[in-house]
UniProtKB/TrEMBL annotation:
The chain crosses the membrane at residues 30-50, 56-73, 267-287. Pfam families: DUF4407. Residues 148-219 form a coiled coil. Keywords: Coiled coil, Membrane, Transmembrane, Transmembrane helix. This is DUF4407 domain-containing protein.
Amino acid sequence: MKRFFWMCSGADQDVLEQCSKSEQIKQAGIGGTVFFTAIMATIAASYALYTVFDNIFAAIFFGLIWGLLIFNLDRFIVSTIKKRDNVWKELAQATPRIALAVIIAIVIAKPLELKIFEKEIDQVLLEEKNQLTLDNQSQIALQYNPTIEALKADNDQLKKEIVDKETEVNDLYNTYITEAEGTAGTMKLGKGPVYKEKREKHDAELQSLQNLKDNNNQKIAANDAAIAAVTNDYASKVKTTQPIIDGFDGLMARIGALDKLPWLPSFFIFLLFLAIETSPIIAKLLAPKGEYDLRLEDHENSIKTWVAQKIDQRAQILGTDTGLNNKVYEDIAEEDELYDYKKKKARELMQLQADAFYENQKRIL
C-alpha cells in the first residue's frame, strides 16, 4: 500500500527508500490525496455521463477513463513541483499547476453538485417542464385556432340566418292571423282574398325556411366535423411533442437548473473539492525542504554535472580533431607528388569535357 501511494505521488521510489520514515509517510500522504481525488473524479464523471447516456455500463466505463485521466494529471502536477531555496520561484512554478487544479476541481465538483441537489433540481425542472408544456400548447394552438375560430364564426352566421328567417316567417304568420281576425290589415273579419294572399306568402316563406334549415344544418354539421378534425390534429400534435418536453432533464438542463438555485451551497462544495485538489500542491509549497528533496536535488545535480562534463569533453575532442585534420591537410598540400597527380587527373578531365562538347556539337549540326 505504501509503495502504491508512493507511485501515486510521482516520487522516485529508489531515492525515497533511502529517506527517513517521516519523509516516506509525507510522500505516501500526498499520493493518497492524488488517488482519492481520482476516485472522486471517477464517481462524479460516471454520474454526469449517466445523465447523458442513460446507460450504467457506458457511464462507468467512460467514468473510469476520466478518473485515470485526472489521476495522471494530478500525479504529473505533484511530481513536477520541485522544492527550491527561493519561495517566489516555487510560487512561480506552482501557479500554472494551481490554475490547472482549479479547472479540475470545477469539473469534478459540478457533477457531484448535481447529485447532491438532485431533489431541488428536479423541482426546478418540473416547474420548467410545466411552463414549457403551457408554452408548447399555446404555440401549437396558434396554428389551429384561426381555422377553428373561422369555422365557429361561419356556424354562428348560418344559425343567425335561420333565426332571422324564423323571425320573418313568424311575422308573416302574425300578419295573416290578424288579417283573419280583422284586427289588422283590411280590418275585415274572415278569410278573404287578402288573407289568402298573406297566407300563401307565409307558406312560401315557411318552405324557404325549411330549405334554409336543411342547407345550413348540413353546413353546420360539416363545420362541426371540421372543427373536431382540427381539434384532434391539435391534440395529436401536443401528444407528439410532449415526450420532448418530458425528456428535458439532460446534463445541460440540470446545470441550468442548478444555476437557478442559491449559489452559496454550491460554492462551498466547490471550495471543498478545490481544497482536495490543491492540497498536494499546497502541502509541497508549505512543507520545508526535506531529506527527499535534498537527495533528489543531489541526484539531479550529479546528472547535470555528468552531462555537462560529457558535453565539454565532446567539444574538446572536436576541437582537437579539427586542429589535427587542418594540420594534416596543410602538410599534404605541400607534397609535389600529390600536386602532379591532381594535375594529371585535371588534364584528363578537361580532355574528356572537350571531347564530349565536340561530339554534342557534331550531333546538333
